[in-house]
Amino acid sequence: MASFQYTGTREGKSFSGVIDADDRRQAITLLARQGVQLQELAEHAEGSSGPSSGLSLRLGGSKKIKPRDITILTRQLATLLEAGFPLARALEFVSRQESTGPMSEMVSDLSASIQQGQDFSSALSEYPKYFGNIFLSMVRAGETGGILDAMLVRLAEMREADEALADRFKSAMTYPALMMGAMVIALGVMFAYVVPQFATMFEDMGRALPGPTQILLNVGDFASTWWPAVVAGVVVAGAGFKAWVKTENGAFQWDRTRLEMPVLGNFMAQFAIARLARTAGTLLESG
Fold first, then answer.
1. In the chain, which residues have pLDDT < 50?
2. What's the pTM value of the predicted model, to 2 decimals?
3. In sequence order, which ranges of 10-49 are alpha helices (DSSP H)?
4. How far apart are CA 28 and CA 33, in angstroms?
5. Where are the domains of the chain?
């Protein structure tokens, strides 16, 4: 008999503890009978103060379904199917973890579709925004070959690895973004305060402003006088650019431009190659 450490809620109160069970499925069943809404469940190792590895059962309750929520759902279903739960019961179990939010509603819809006899891949295809062609193809292959649990495990591992890589990319870009923001703020302060002081100093000396300084001063005067138009122009330009990159030609041109950037382009190319290799490896491994 193994020990499982869990965290959950019951009657609106959060608590954690350890339960003894023969396997993970029995632990989940025993806790469900006690009215516990699980959030985390992991096998408790001797001498450890916390769970070593396990299943996170927390669904996103936000107003928007995030890619991380889909990854968590995939890992949940993979673990529950490996524990011997039927797919319909696993979906029903997951949907009960959160009572509100679009994620819970989507899982409830999937559960209802499965109970009505629909294939899991067909049910997922009704949400193309969250489940792409690769995801659907692997789920369909798992259904056909009777290895849906193994396919979901591979999908969860692939998505988790992609997210970890994306997090490292965002971390690497944080410092340059901060430096760019600091530079913009410094330029704003210079236009608003420093350049006008130089202009006053030159006027007091009876000397004409240098050409570059006069240009900076004119830009500062224009920005301070017409700042509503400047802000509106930036907003319109940003919205137009966002709409343009969503087109096929715009996305191609923007991707090519980013790949041609010094330093950043090489980093993005490596990121894309790593994702391609991981996805191809997962598909080849899945047959």
1. 47-58, 60-62
2. 0.58
3. 24-33
4. 9
5. 1-57, 230-287
Q: Which of 92, 1, 90 is nearest to 43 (CA)?
A: 1
Can you tell me the distance from the alpha carbon of 141 to that of 135, in angstroms, rounded to the nearest whole number?
10
| CA distances to 117, 173, 206, 255, 259 from 263, in Å | 52, 11, 47, 15, 9
Q: List the structure tokens of 101.
A: 């939010």
Which of 13, 20, 16, 9 has the alpha carbon at shortest distance from 59? 9
Q: What is the pLDDT of residue 184?
A: 83
Q: Which of 124, 84, 85, 97 is nearest to 39 (CA)?
A: 97
Number of H helices, E strands in the chain: 12, 4
End-to-end CA distance of the chain: 36
Q: Residue 42's Cα: distance from chain center in Å?
A: 24
CA 102 – CA 108 distance, rounded (Å): 10
Predicted confidence (pLDDT) per residue in 3-24, tens digit: 777 777 766 667 677 777 777 7
CA pair distance 78, 87, nearest whole angstrom? 10
Q: Are 1 and 19 in contact (CB under 8 A)?
A: no
Query: What are the contacts of 168-174 at 24+ separation with CB within 8 A?
Result: 169/267, 169/268, 169/271, 172/267, 173/264
What span, in angstroms and rounded, lies between the C-alpha atoms of 122 and 6? 33
